[in-house]
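hey so i finally got around to running the thing on that chain from the lab meeting. sorry it took forever, my laptop kept dying and i had to restart like 3 times. anyway pasting the input first so we r on the same page abt which one it is
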Amino acid sequence: MLDVNTIIDDRQMRSLTGLDMAAFCALAEPFTSGCQQEADARFSEQRPRQRKTGAGRKGVLASPQQKLLFSLYYLKTYPTFDVLAATFGLSRSKACENAHRLAKALERTLQAKGVLPVRAIASLAEMHALFADVPVLLLDATERPHHRPQAVVDRQADYSGKKKTPP
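ok and heres what got predicted. didnt touch it at all, straight out
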């Protein structure tokens, strides 16, 4: 099982999470409050609690540092949930649940620190304003085949210009 205490040096930490030990430790404290805020938000949306905060079964990812390691490892390497579960000693379903929940907590933490990049671009004019100093902007896209309509009029509107479907 991968644990924070088993990581021996900065190189190993950078290869697993993308951060060195100092940056990881600096992010661990705010991440604790981000996890707490995410838990409070999650439970405020649901029905009232039956138990006090902290009651119940303790998870495998007990410490905030272990949760941060789990989240950063997942976001850096994007393993399947089977691999993630085996690496951290969880079940597949808990690996999936924790990955999504802790990613939200990490986003909350980075937003509170003011280091979360702006990614929501609403219009083309806003994109041009953000990238005004970039001379050439390339976008990468994947063309996917789709069902062609049977009517000739509708077929002309959907024609992409390609002669054949790529192999």
